[in-house]
């Protein structure tokens, strides 16, 4: 969550859209907005241009950023990466694993993307949370995409403070005006002129975010929608669609009737990616839901959504690791300069009185600072490695799983014993209660549990195993309680 004035930028369809946000009496308000076409910042062609290396500061993106800052007046930038450059995924994880959510997301990304950790920027956001599970939005962007922005920002001495996902920015801005938080499953198809984006919402929460790109054939459009809807049923469960909302670019279409194409792909179709009305009717009949057409709001709505999300807590941030490191280094230098100024005054005062050596003090401070940074780095690496090892061991160890423990216990359970209670705690052990026809059966059951081995090893599964009872109960039964503790576990 940002606390200083900033500019939120959205890029798409050859243009930059920007909104400046500032604090006014404790609240965030818009202090200006604008739109800049990148084509307007193309440098004039030069002779022998192929042999000339273009300076980063003269590239259209860097020139456009200079104009944005000149008009809106802030050096802190929130970037909104276009959807076609980001891989988005919605996953569900148990609430119990929320404390290790960062590692789980990293492992999930490593499964599906064959890239090194240094080549990707990964971010996640908890969209919804129930008693049992969390719905998490995961986004991944290659660092090659952010490097182009980094060069343009560095050329203009600007600072990226956050990196947002375009689809989530649109979702934030359109939720209220288009009533996207209604109950049921909705599909939102957006086209800002650069291609199609698909967003599937369950009760207002995104469960699928996907870029379809430019589609020219109705059959391709139907295929992409069908695959997307099948995927959402497999991952999030089957649920009927209540509506498909189709959002049109404001400058391209004047009416619903204009939002059509012919079955024949002509020259107009080659430059205008629209949807055949018969195709949409087929989708409507297949899903048994209505289709609603709306015109997209003004182009800076995406930037406004990114700005609104930037001042809210716990939202996704795709800042590359090296950008974060550079920001930490910048703050460290700033603190160092501030501290150096204060230390200089103290040093002059003490030198005048005690004639202390400035060179010796400076070397001592530098040595302490270098050692502190080295120790902090080593400590971070060690804790990260320990967390990974614990996570991997927890997911690979099946010997202490509840189902495996229950299976082994059932093998030694004598006939005539009825279990009335079974309580399992992974870090402690289990406690069972039951009734037996004969006390001897209880002792046999207790001895059988105490003799269980962990997997194929000779290590005892439970140690110690304590018995309470048996005691006479109604109907001639004998009640008992057995507490079986895992070795090294907490006493129950």
What does this structure look like?
- It contains 12 helices and 17 strands.
- With 492 residues, it is of the alpha+beta class.
- About 5% of the residues have low confidence.
- Helix content is 38%, strand content 28%.
First-last Cα distance: 43 Å
Q: Extract low-pLDDT stretches.
A: 252-274
* Number of separate strands: 17
Question: So what's the overall shape?
Answer: flat
Strand order of the largest sheet: 3-2-1-4-8
User: Mean pLDDT, as a whole number?
Assistant: 79
Structural class designation? alpha+beta
Largest sheet: 5 strands, mixed
**Hey, roughly how much beta strand do the residues contain?**
25-35%
Computed CA radius of gyration, to the nearest angstrom: 31 Å
Task: Note the topology.
Layout: E1 6-12, E2 15-24, E3 27-37, H1 60-72, E4 76-81, E5 87-94, H2 101-112, E6 120-129, E7 133-142, H3 143-155, E8 159-165, H4 166-174, E9 185-191, E10 196-202, E11 205-213, H5 218-236, E12 241-248, H6 267-271, H7 277-287, E13 290-295, H8 301-310, H9 321-354, H10 358-396, H11 402-411, E14 417-425, E15 429-436, H12 439-450, E16 465-472, E17 478-485
Parallel strand pairs: 1-4, 4-8, 9-12, 12-13
Antiparallel strand pairs: 1-2, 2-3, 5-7, 6-7, 9-10, 10-11, 14-15, 15-17, 16-17
Helix pairs in contact: 1-3, 4-8
């Amino acid at each position: 969550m940002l606390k200083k004035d900033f500019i939120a930028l959205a890029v798409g369809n050859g243009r930059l859209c920007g909104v400046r946000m500032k604090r006014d009496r404790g609240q965030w308000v818009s202090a200006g907005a604008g739109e800049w076409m990148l084509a307007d910042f193309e440098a004039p062609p030069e002779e022998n241009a192929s042999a000339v290396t273009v300076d980063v500061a003269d590239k259209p993106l860097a020139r456009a950023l200079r104009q944005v800052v000149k008009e809106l007046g802030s050096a802190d930038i929130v970037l909104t990466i276009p959807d076609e450059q980001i891989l988005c995924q919605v996953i569900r994880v148990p609430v119990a694993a929320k404390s290790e959510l960062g590692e789980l997301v990293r492992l999930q990304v490593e499964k599906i993307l064959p890239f090194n950790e240094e080549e990707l920027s990964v971010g996640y956001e908890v969209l919804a949370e129930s008693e049992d599970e969390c719905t998490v939005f995961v986004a991944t962007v290659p660092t090659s995409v952010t490097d182009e922005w980094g060069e343009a920002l560095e050329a203009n001495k600007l600072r990226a403070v956050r990196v947002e996902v375009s689809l989530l920015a649109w979702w934030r801005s359109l939720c209220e005006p288009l009533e996207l938080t209604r109950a049921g499953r909705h599909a939102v198809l957006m086209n800002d002129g650069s291609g199609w984006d698909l967003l599937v919402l369950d009760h207002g929460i995104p469960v699928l975010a996907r870029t379809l790109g430019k589609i020219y054939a109705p059959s391709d459009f139907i295929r992409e929608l069908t695959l997307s809807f099948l995927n959402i049923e497999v991952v999030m469960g089957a649920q009927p669609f209540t509506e498909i909302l189709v959002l049109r670019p404001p400058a391209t279409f004047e009416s619903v009737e204009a939002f059509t194409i012919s079955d024949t792909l002509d020259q107009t179709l080659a430059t205008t990616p629209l949807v055949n009305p018969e195709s949409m009717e087929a989708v409507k009949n297949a899903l048994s839901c209505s289709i609603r057409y709306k015109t997209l709001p003004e182009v800076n709505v995406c930037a406004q959504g990114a700005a609104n999300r930037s001042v809210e807590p716990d939202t996704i941030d795709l800042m590359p690791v090296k950008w974060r490191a550079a920001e930490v280094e910048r703050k460290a230098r700033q603190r160092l300069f501030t501290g150096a100024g204060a230390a200089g005054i103290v040093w002059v005062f003490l030198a005048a009185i005690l004639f202390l050596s400035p060179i010796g003090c400076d070397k001592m401070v530098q040595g302490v600072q270098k050692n502190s940074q080295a120790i902090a780095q080593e400590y971070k690496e060690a804790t990260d490695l320990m967390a990974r090892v614990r996570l991997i061991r927890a997911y690979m160890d099946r010997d202490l799983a509840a189902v495996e423990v229950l299976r082994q216990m059932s093998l030694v359970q004598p006939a005539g014993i009825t279990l009335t209670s079974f309580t399992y705690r992974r870090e402690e052990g289990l406690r069972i209660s039951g009734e037996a026809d004969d006390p001897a059966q209880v002792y046999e059951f207790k001895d059988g549990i105490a003799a269980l081995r962990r997997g194929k090893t000779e290590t005892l599964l439970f140690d110690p195993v304590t018995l309470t009872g048996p005691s006479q109960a109604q109907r001639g039964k004998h009640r008992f309680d057995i507490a079986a503790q895992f070795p090294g576990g907490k006493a129950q």
